[in-house]
Design brief:
two-stranded antiparallel ribbon, 8 strands, 9 helices, alpha/beta, 35% helix, six-stranded parallel β-sheet, globular
Length: 226
């Protein structure tokens, strides 16, 4: 789907939003972000670690650790920005609240300068999108940039099509790593260093080992300052 890049003769900024638990952040996350940056012509892509994930029941690693790992995974690309609004905000992390806050802030910093906003999600998230808080209002604020499952074509849910969702597909190679797999392997005692660089960035692996994250027996030392 094509989108206009000019309004009233002026170039429109393009901003990507990529939210998730990032528990831990891994190379498939980075590959998706790189693909979105290139294929959508984004000026910046904001990585948003979730604060309180209202649709998850499992205990996540502390938000400060998850944010720190994201920072290590993206620090080599100035177009990537770590956005802490959800981990700093009380209450459930609703994407609608996050997008509204970021758009309000952007309007204050760039008055009179329009922007197109792209929400980066996967096919599974698209399939469940109609269960999200305020999803219809959210559709009016963002274009959904969707990576198909295992490289397949994006399947548009009927409810979203009827609601006029703006959707653009992202071409992606099948993802072969997941946070669930990483947590399982680390909990079984596998060292994080053995997972780098194919599954996690070396800096992220080092952080996991220093802080004993996801391991069955964390180091018996005082935790380093994050």
């Amino acid at each position: 789907m094509a989108f206009e890049s000019l309004r009233a003769g002026r170039r429109v900024r393009r901003i990507g939003l990529f939210g998730g638990s990032f528990d831990p952040v891994h190379q498939a996350h980075r590959e998706l972000a790189d693909a979105a940056l290139a294929q959508l012509g984004l000026d910046e892509l904001r990585w948003i670690p979730v604060g309180r994930a209202w649709q998850k029941t499992r205990q996540m690693a502390p938000a400060a650790h998850r944010a720190a790992m994201v920072g290590l995974a993206i620090g080599d690309n100035p177009a990537f920005v770590l956005e802490r609004c959800e981990i700093e905000r009380d209450g459930p992390s609703y994407t609608l609240d996050t997008v509204a806050e970021l758009q309000r802030r952007d309007g204050q910093r760039h008055p009179g300068e329009p922007a197109d906003w792209f929400l980066i999600i996967g096919q599974d998230q698209l399939a469940n999108f109609a269960t999200w808080h305020g999803w219809r209002d959210l559709l009016g604020r963002v274009v959904l940039a969707v990576a198909g499952r295992d490289g397949d074509a994006v399947q548009m849910p009927v409810a979203l099509a009827e609601a006029g969702a703006r959707v653009v597909p992202l071409a992606m190679m099948p993802m072969t790593v997941s946070s669930t797999e990483l947590r399982t392997r680390l909990a079984a005692g596998e060292p994080a260093s053995s997972l780098a660089p194919r599954m996690v960035a070396p800096a992220v692996a080092g952080y996991i080992e220093r802080h004993g994250l996801y391991h069955p027996h964390p180091p018996n030392t005082e935790q380093e300052r994050i």
